[in-house]
Amino acid sequence: VKWYTWCGATDITMKRRTILLGSILLNALLVVVLVKHSIRGEQLASAMRTTTRSSAAITGRTLTPFSSNCMSQNSMRNVPLMAPQAPIQHDTSARAFRVGRETRVNAAKVTQIIKLALDAGKANPAPPVGPALGAAGVNIMQFCKEYNAATSTKAGQVIPVEITVFADRSFTFILKTPPASKLLLKAAGLEKGSGTPDKETIATITQAQLKEIAEIKMPDLNAKDIDAAMRIIAGTAKNMGIAIEAPSTA
To answer: Which of 16, 111, 176, 246 could join 160 in a cystine, given CB atoms 3.0 to 4.6 angstroms apart?
Structure first.
């Protein structure tokens, strides 16, 4: 006769009681292990804090304590003290705007880009400057002052400008090269191009003049070299009724 039959219990009942008792014992063991680990962790953390305070008192510097799980007391003593460094500043705007020799970077959100073609050194609040910048909330007089100062050495030319307006109503601008049509008219001594360029030629410019204009326009042209830029300018001249002198064969 088995021992548990003495208590009047059946086989099934005792098996259930045995499984329950085993579960209770296992849970108790896990609790004991967790408590031991918790106590040990607190002891390590306390030791680390004590070491940190001692090191700070000796060196006269403030240390940031490391986690007890990452570094022991012995290795903490070997960590060199680093002098504080300024945070690295990154250009978040992705746009650097050049005016003459000055480059300015603005990290604010771009709200609008305005393109105007103005006479160098003669910008004023009258149209087209006033209405375009006023609608964008830009300080019109400040722009006129800065544009005129940047183009003061180019009097008599039309200097296009690309104005970038930011969310805080500040702005920057890029000066472009004069329009190719204006440069061609000046080189040819004309006031305007032909109304029927496919039927009549009203002027002729030399290869040297063509090259000079191409060199001026090169920064704004999608051309890999000066020859490609000259072909682009020659196409513009043809559409205005201006012929290009044939290159010398000598």
So the answer is: 176
Instruction: Give the tokens for residue 85.
Output: 């460094």
Whether the Cβ atoms of residue 146 and residue 172 lie closer than 8 Å to each other: no
Pairwise CA distance, residues 113 & 230, whole Å: 29
Computed over every residue of the chain, the mean pLDDT equals 77
pTM of the model: 0.50
Q: What is the CA radius of gyration of the chain?
A: 41
Tokens 């090169």 found at: 218
Quick one: 151 exposed, middle or buried, by C-beta within 10 A (0-12, 13-18, 19+)?
A: buried
Instruction: Tell me the one-letter amino acid at 225.
Output: D
Residue 242, φ and ψ in degrees, nearest 5 = -110, 125
For 59-104, what is each residue's pLDDT tens digit? 454 444 444 444 444 444 554 555 555 444 433 333 344 444 344 4
Proportion of the chain above pLDDT 70, given as a percent: 68
Helices (H), 151-218: 180-188, 207-217
What is the distance between the alpha carbons of residues 81 and 213, in angstroms, rounded to a whole number? 61
Distance of CA 8 to the CA centre of its chain: 83
